[in-house]
Each structure stands twice: as structure tokens, then as C-alpha cells.
């Protein structure tokens, strides 16, 4: 019996086209056995991840003058709130290393300012001192150190052109105006006549002829502004 010779064509779903012919069964060898191709591996070495990232937007502090409050007093009028910036980020990795990043969307919830009322009203009061009763318009708590003309960066003349010594103190002009008259318990009456690099905010420096023999140690003290 003679086998029928056929021509055929197989087309596999993966796109591989195979042409072959059949022949007599007696002539087919092991090498001619049709070997079907294995499916192509399609796993990608890339992967993507989506991340939602939130960034805090700090509220700002705004001071508002209040003529009904005494100077030196503060009161919170509005607490305000922090804002937030929300981003959706797509990150592409190649072999587990960052290959690309893309911001898909950004949404901002704005912050609301914190508003603080700051008193501007001047109220005159009196305080008993070794010099008698003195009128003052503001009482302040400060950190008081002391110095003389021989300190580093100092000389015999102050920032307002008067001689350095007892009765002259260094201040931060943003807090206490130069030439202001001041009463410092334990030190006496003084004029704000000097400045210094380390004198910032509620810090003052009490002048002496000789800081080494001065009867003063650095401490907090309530001072009184007289004019």
C-alpha cells in the first residue's frame, strides 16, 4: 500500500508559518518528525507603580494690630489650618531600578493663615523703686547679661555716640528703641544706648565700667520702659 503524498501548511497563533510534505511511511525518519515551536516568552522586564504623595503646606502667621488690647498682649483671632498638596505619581521600574517618573495629577488644598491680634494700646502704670514711684508704659521680661568697653568688638563709645559704662544698656532696636529710658531692678535707671551682635529679641546687655567686678549675674528680669 502506497501512502498518499500531501502538501500542507500550518500557521500557528504566534505567527510562525511551517510548510511540510508527507511522504511514504516507510521513508519517514526520526529527524523528519515535525517539532512544534515553543511559545515565545513575553514577560516584560518593566513594571509600573502608582503612588499618592501628600506634602504639607504650613500655615502662615499674620499679626493684626488691635487697639483695644494693651501693648505686649497677644490673642489668637483665627487658628487657621495647614494646606496639603496631593500628587499621583507613576513610577516605571526596569529590573527593579527607577527608569522614569511622571506626575499624573496635582491637587492643592490651600493653607489658611493663623491670625494673631497684637495689642497697641498704651496703659500707664506706676512701680515703686529706690528712686521713688516711677511711671512706666510697658513691662517686659528679658534675659540680662552684662559687659564693659573691653569686651571683644567693644570700645569706649556706644552706638548712639555716648560713653559706655554704668547706666547704658545694649538692646535690640527692633524690640526696644534706642534712647529709650529704662528701669532695671537690681541695676537702676538706664538709657538704651548700644547694640550688639548677640543682642537679639528679648536680650539686653547691662553696661559696667568693669564687668569682672560688676555685681550682676546673667538672669531673667522684668524691666520697665519709661518713655
UniProtKB/TrEMBL annotation:
<dbReference type="GO" id="GO:0004553">
    <property type="term" value="F:hydrolase activity, hydrolyzing O-glycosyl compounds"/>
</dbReference>
<protein>
    <submittedName>
        <fullName>3D domain protein</fullName>
    </submittedName>
</protein>
<dbReference type="GO" id="GO:0019867">
    <property type="term" value="C:outer membrane"/>
</dbReference>
<dbReference type="Pfam" id="PF06725">
    <property type="entry name" value="3D"/>
</dbReference>
<dbReference type="InterPro" id="IPR010611">
    <property type="entry name" value="3D_dom"/>
</dbReference>
<keyword id="KW-0732">Signal</keyword>
<dbReference type="InterPro" id="IPR036908">
    <property type="entry name" value="RlpA-like_sf"/>
</dbReference>
<feature type="domain" description="G5">
    <location>
        <begin position="43"/>
        <end position="122"/>
    </location>
</feature>
<dbReference type="InterPro" id="IPR011098">
    <property type="entry name" value="G5_dom"/>
</dbReference>
<dbReference type="Pfam" id="PF07501">
    <property type="entry name" value="G5"/>
</dbReference>
<dbReference type="InterPro" id="IPR051933">
    <property type="entry name" value="Resuscitation_pf_RpfB"/>
</dbReference>
<dbReference type="GO" id="GO:0009254">
    <property type="term" value="P:peptidoglycan turnover"/>
</dbReference>
Amino acid at each position: 500500500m502506497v501512502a498518499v503524498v500531501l502538501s500542507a501548511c500550518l500557521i500557528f497563533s504566534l505567527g510562525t508559518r511551517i510548510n511540510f510534505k508527507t511522504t511514504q511511511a516507510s521513508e519517514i525518519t526520526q529527524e523528519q518528525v515535525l517539532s512544534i515551536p515553543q511559545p515565545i516568552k513575553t514577560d516584560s522586564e518593566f513594571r509600573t507603580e502608582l503612588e499618592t504623595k501628600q506634602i504639607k503646606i504650613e500655615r502662615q502667621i499674620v499679626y493684626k494690630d488691635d487697639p483695644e488690647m494693651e501693648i505686649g498682649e497677644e490673642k489668637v483671632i483665627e487658628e487657621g489650618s495647614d494646606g496639603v498638596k496631593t500628587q499621583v505619581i507613576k513610577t516605571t521600574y526596569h529590573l527593579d531600578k527607577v527608569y522614569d517618573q511622571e506626575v499624573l495629577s496635582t491637587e492643592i488644598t490651600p493653607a489658611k493663615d493663623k491670625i494673631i491680634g497684637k495689642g497697641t494700646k498704651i496703659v500707664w502704670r506706676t512701680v515703686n523703686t529706690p528712686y521713688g514711684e516711677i511711671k512706666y508704659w510697658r513691662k517686659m521680661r528679658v534675659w540680662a547679661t552684662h559687659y564693659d568697653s573691653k569686651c571683644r568688638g567693644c570700645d569706649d563709645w556706644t552706638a548712639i555716640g555716648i560713653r559706655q559704662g554704668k547706666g547704658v544698656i545694649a538692646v535690640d532696636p527692633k524690640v526696644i528703641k534706642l534712647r529709650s529710658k529704662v528701669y532695671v531692678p537690681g541695676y537702676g535707671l538706664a538709657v538704651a544706648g548700644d547694640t550688639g551682635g548677640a543682642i537679639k529679641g528679648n536680650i539686653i546687655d547691662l553696661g559696667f565700667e568693669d564687668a569682672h567686678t560688676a555685681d550682676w549675674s546673667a538672669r531673667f528680669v522684668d524691666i520697665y520702659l519709661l518713655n
